[in-house]
Amino acid sequence: MKASEVAKRLVEQLTIDEKISLLSTTQSAVPRLGISAYQVGGEAAHGVVDREGGKTTAFPLPIGLAQTWNPRLLKEVGKVIGTEARIKYLDSGKRSWLTLWAPTIDMLRDPRWGRNEEAYGEDPYLTNRLSKEVILGMQGDNPEHLQMAAAPKHFFGNNNEIGRESTSNFIPLRAQEEYYVKAFETAFTEANAQSMMTAYNGVNGIPCMQAPEVQEIVKDRWKMDGFVVSDGGALTLNVDTYHYYETYAQAIADAIKHGVDCLVDDKELVETAAKEALSKGLLTEKEINTAVENCLRVRARLGHFTEDNPYDQVDRNLLAGTKHAAIAKKATLEQVVLLKNVGNLLPLKQTASISVVGPLADVAVRDWYAGHGPYQKTIATSLKNVLSEDKWKGSCDSHDRVSIKMNQQFVNVTDNFLTLGEKQEFRVEEWADDQLVLVDEKSGRYLTEDGTGRYQLHQTEIYDWFVKEAWKINSEKEQVQENSYIGQAKTWAEEEIGVKDGFIQANQQSANITFIQEHSGIEEAVTLAKTSNVAVVVLGNHPMINGRETQDRPSISLPHRQLELLKQVYEVNPHVVLIIVGSYPFDLSWANEHIPAILFTAHGSQELGEAMAEILYGTEQPSGKLAQTWFSDISFLPAITNYDYIQFPRTYHYYRQPVLYPFGYGLTYGNMTATVQECRWRQEEVTMVVTLKNQSDKPSVDTLQLYGQVTEFDLPMPKKLVWFDKVHLCPQEEKRVSIRIPLEAFSYFDVRTERFQLPSGNLELFCGFSSEAELCGQFVLPTQSERVRIVSDNLNIFSFDAYNQAQIIVNEEKQRVIQLESNGWLSYQNTLFEESSYMITVVADRVGTIQINEKSYEVVPGEQRICFETPPKLTKVFIESSSPVLIEGVVKCTSKTSV
């Protein structure tokens, strides 16, 4: 029996209480129907995550996976995740693990986003190509059965952390269709993802849990036949934080009506809210049936109700085993980006002696969505293993060791607590300016505020939802001697740190704290650098501290202390290889000007050290390409909460100012060239023949990229990636590559006709190895039929061509409306009204005027309807207000008088 039939029959036999018991992620058992208890959810961004410490294969962060630009490889990665999820499911007694929330495919349109490491870049085409293959690998290729169900997230417009649970993002219609929604499309239309997670944030006034686009786009347009979940705790937040609804019953009813099938929230809360919504007529049993049937259909495909799922016959030895490790190694190698290599310093020669310094030289740090790999090979350890003893000059973490005084008394650890007492040295790690964490050197454990206010020893790694290890040092700290400074500190929660009953404790009167440097980490690094031919400096971020979920970055600079370390090492040894181990782009302006060799790698992989050693010594080629633009300055960037990437550019699509490293950039050890032999336009497609040649005596791997841009059109048009392929060439090898691009790849979303169509104008093609590729062909596109906005009964007020001082919000009836600020305006070009007069509904809170085309109308506080004449020809509708107003609609007028 097909899964759809199984789900339908089960729903027909369930009681209403049993149906409601299946609406949360903690789904109850219904033994009489063979439905076992099951827990929906879990994480798998770059490997299956077992929060209890079970070993699974650990891949690079998703931003690193994106830098491979290798869809075929990402399908292998997805298959590993799916296989290990199935093994964990079987090991758990079939209670969970098959419905994991991945991949994250939100757009990386701003380098300050705290969750930058979780997604696949700033381009929707690249994201579509890569995430599609990850999903296909995760779910398997059996037409009747699923290996697991992938859940792309977070739909949609989710790119800022601060305020995400309580605010809405204004996204104009064209930007929504071409960019934010587009990134999710192939996940459903081609990969048939069986689940999806909505975002916390609102879009155009409506929280994504209740956004109409979930049903209208994902389920109706893309024909998604799986189930949709809310983000974690979103039902609670919808009422308590967003204040969109007053009751949970209202919130859950609206979510289910708009396409959410399963709530990631407290089971009792969900079920109580659903029962109340049903009893009050806010929700019907038929609507509950739809949600439950969607979930059970996927569970049937996963094999929850039969014993014949072929994926259950998996070799359990694959879990965190050598076969999967080899794929992790390949993914790690291919994501490393060579940013600079002056004088061919890389690859290193075996005859050169090296030292490895920096806070990330010999440590592996985990992000919040990381699992536990079977091992972790650090950069320093791996390099030491490949060098002879005389060539290895040592490594250091470059952290200072300090003693601490509070109120002129030394601080130490006594019975696990931080107290006043004898002198003791601590390792101080500065991952962000004016912030540090302390480590007890004897135990290797971090000091943390324990919830009662006292500081005590905690874990040997920083890994919690709240980083209570952080000490925020005031910027007015005073240097008292060359090796010490005095100041005050606050906890992670901004509470003063002081002393009570001999204990160092939060929420006390602030005490003067003196940090006395007992050992300089920078001096140790400089000493090592002097003794070696090459100094490898490993810098970057800690993914749990400076930039993460709930925390956006105020700056893209390296921490001041890391930059100072780099400068002092370079001063004594100019042969520096800088390795950035990171979660996002950095401003490397100084390094790019001075340091001869720079590499970037993402965190997360169990194979990081081995991969970097092989690339540094040339056993393997660096072949990664940046999946987002790297800037040297962000002062010009729009606010992170500004989502109109067209009018306020920040991605390569529209941004035209110089950047540090462009999208798609990455050097190699080889020298591949691309020569366009043929570029034609025929039968609704562009065809191109490119000759690639490796001009060097080394193997070369590079990614050929094709971009297009339409110019001389009456709308701003993006430069956009339309094709890419990763190519391997032997020394001096030559290869011809044939490319075919359908013209629809250059289409745009026309807000007047509300559909994608081809623009008129000149089509320019660019071919090369980054978004700054060279122009290689030009064509004149055929003139399209006139783009006309035809208005019969009503004008879609959200289909404006241009705007100023406007945004989309909701009114008291939860309907989207446009809010114009003082002197704000809307423009609707090429509009043809089928009636002679129309009525606009306006709500104002003060006296003012609203101009419709060239005529002004007075507005007064409250709601009013204004009729205006429309000419019997194409016209531009221009609406401008002198004071703040809400525009609720433009409809056919039945009376020519203002009401």
Automatic annotation (TrEMBL):
Residues 702-771 form the Fibronectin type III-like domain. It comes from Enterococcus phoeniculicola ATCC BAA-412. Belongs to the glycosyl hydrolase 3 family. This is Fibronectin type III-like domain-containing protein. Keywords: Glycosidase, Hydrolase, Signal. SUPFAM superfamilies: (Trans)glycosidases, Beta-D-glucan exohydrolase, C-terminal domain. The keyword Signal applies. GO terms for molecular function: alpha-L-arabinofuranosidase activity; xylan 1,4-beta-xylosidase activity.
